[in-house]
Specification:
Strand order of the largest sheet: 1-26-25-24
CATH topology: Neuraminidase
Structural class: mainly beta
Number of helices: 2
CATH architecture: 6 Propeller
Length: 326
């Protein structure tokens, strides 16, 4: 049975890294390395000794970066598959020498604009989340569901699910039977059955979230529970496979969240409002990674944090496919 007595406290927060630039996504590997997205146009490695190194295309000083990394995956050769938020859009491969090359710029005849997330599964397939085809401040609405999921494997790239309310992070469970995905402005956690060829079917809602919760980052623990991170309210919610929720952490200003809720209901929620952070400790959290030799150290990435908030968990996370890479 899953733990039901997990208690985390903001008072126990420790911090990892320094002077980070929009560490929206964080990954961990067995050797103690952490990798975070960096708005300067690349991926930053935090070494076990605390040293930091940015992998990015050269010659970008004073210019808009050719890549604006959001979610990313660490590949077997140590390079990165990056979901690109910049105007060039698509999914790009970044080498540790700073070289970049397109991995996916269109699918089924559709040119890809901004891409939210890319994830590597145990079969080393890439799952790509496109949140919406809308641009600007007309995309943060609960009545729009034009997001989709792309699968990239040995057969190429294809759309395997659509009609999603702002597609965000996704994960497959330990048995490989279900893919879970956060619908940020649909305010729900959704599950699909996964076939051997990667096809998705049997869509169902695992749980729906209430006021102040906008599900973003996602991880799975060894007990099969989902750890959902909410932007804006800085909530960390553990969800059992049957949909029961337990809030483990939250850090927000009630007046700020109430104002955003009103804007959301009136379909006028904007990117600056989502990015504005009124938390005391957490940095507008958007992602979670289990790390450490026992996979019981939690690191939280965010839109505005300059460090990663770090906690200890009584439950270990699942070992990710990239655990021994890099």
């Amino acid at each position: 049975m899953p733990h039901t007595d997990i208690v985390l406290s903001l008072a126990d927060a420790r911090f990892t890294g320094q002077d980070l630039e929009r560490p929206e996504c964080v990954l961990a590997t067995r050797d103690g390395s952490l990798y975070v997205s960096d708005r300067r146009g690349g991926i930053l490695r935090i070494a076990p000794d605390g040293g930091q190194r940015l992998f990015a295309p050269p010659g970008q000083e004073g210019q808009a970066p050719s890549l604006l990394p959001n979610g990313f995956a660490l590949l077997r050769d140590g390079s990165f598959a990056i979901a690109n938020l910049a105007e060039s859009g698509g999914v790009w491969r970044l080498g540790r020498d700073g070289s970049i090359a397109p991995l996916l710029l269109e699918v089924e005849g559709r040119t890809l604009g901004s891409v939210n997330f890319v994830w590597l599964d145990a079969a080393e397939r890439l799952w790509v989340s496109v949140s919406t085809v809308r641009v600007g401040d007309h995309q943060f609405r609960g009545d729009i569901a034009d997001g989709f999921i792309i699968l990239m494997d040995g057969s190429g790239a294809r759309i395997v699910a659509d009609g999603i309310g702002w597609t965000n992070e996704c994960r497959i469970d330990a048995a490989g039977r279900h893919l879970y995905v956060n619908e940020t402005f649909g305010r729900r956690l959704t599950r699909f059955r996964v076939a051997a060829d990667g096809s998705l079917s049997g869509r169902e809602t695992v749980t729906e979230f209430g006021a102040g919760t906008y599900p973003d980052g996602l991880a799975i623990d060894v007990e099969g529970c989902l750890w959902v991170v909410s932007v804006v309210s800085n909530r960390l919610i553990r969800v059992t496979p049957d949909g029961r929720q337990t809030v483990l952490l939250e850090d927000y200003d009630p007046a700020h969240v109430d104002a955003l809720e009103t804007a959301f209901r009136e379909n006028r929620l904007s990117r600056p409002m989502v990015w504005d952070n009124h938390a005391a400790i957490l940095g507008n959290t958007t992602s979670i990674a289990f790390a450490g030799e026992d996979l019981r150290t939690i690191h939280l990435g965010g839109l505005s944090g300059r460090r990663l908030a770090t906690f200890r968990s009584p439950v270990a996370g699942l070992e990710p496919a990239h655990w021994t890479f890099g």
